[in-house]
Design a protein that fits this description.
alpha/beta; 10-stranded parallel β-sheet; 3 helices; single chain; 345 residues; 8-stranded parallel β-sheet; 29 strands
Amino acid sequence: MMMHFLRSLHALGSNLARRFGAGVQLILVIAALLFSQAAHAGEIHLAIKGNDRNDGLSEERPVATLTNAVKLAAAQSAKTGEDMVIVVGPGIYRGQTLLLDDTMMRGKLTIAGSSPVAADYPAFYGRGNGTWLRYEGRAGRDTGLTIRNLRIVDYGTAITLNGNRDDPAGFNRGTVIANNVFARIGSTSGKGKSTAALRFVNSRDNIIENNYFRTIRNYPVSSCPGLHAMYVAHGSSGNRIERNKFEDFCGSAVKLRDASGNTVLVKNSFATADRAAAIEEWFCDLGKTGECTKKSGECPSTGNIASDNTFAGIEERRQISVRGSRQPRPWCDASVYTQARFSER
């Protein structure tokens, strides 16, 4: 990204020098150097031929693993005060995973592919299980995390944002997941079946936009209906899900569960579903079954907005499915049973 900018600035300087003199070009060169130093100060570079003995501070000295890149970015941020930025170079990275928590974050962290063109996104390939990125955040604050311009393939789960499902105050919030491709996500063996490509537990006010979800399936097929492209659960309220494409899924593509209301779903497209709902709202009702795992009880998700979405080949009753009792339960605020679960603007 930086090299493209510098080349463009150099070309501009040469053109201006021909028209207005060398002084203008000199000013631009100085500006470029200053900008380069400032931009590089917070960046760590990752490359398929990188080496974790490198410092990662330039494209010429990239590191090899995400885990090491985060450590170096945190150390660099502590020195410079810059936000953490990891620039992922082109190519395929195999078998990498990343675990983050609140204590590892110094300001904001962006993990981004070096190209904004989808065909050139760098790709992380798993082995049909495990989670590519897991964030444990229960401190009730912003994550500062942005994930963009990446391709995540062949993992059991792509991204998990974990708050405390039993404590409403133990949330995380504010993650941005944009312009990514999530393909062939789901378990490929009978062990540890996956429930989501993107999983949110008490994770609020996130932005999920312009992503492509393709082939979200568990194998064997018998465990497939329990897998969702997005599982938004246990107090994960206020999320914005916009302009994403969901294709070839076997469980409901977006599932809202347990007080995960005020979700906005706008201009998404859904296609090729195995008789699953595109959008589903549901909660486990302790008043009807003893199989609920949350002892304090679950509640409906209300105040959701769904507008301008398209549902190619999905019958109307499965476009938005609302399940769960309308009968008030003592563990929920009575007002939620009088509110609409879905509406359009």
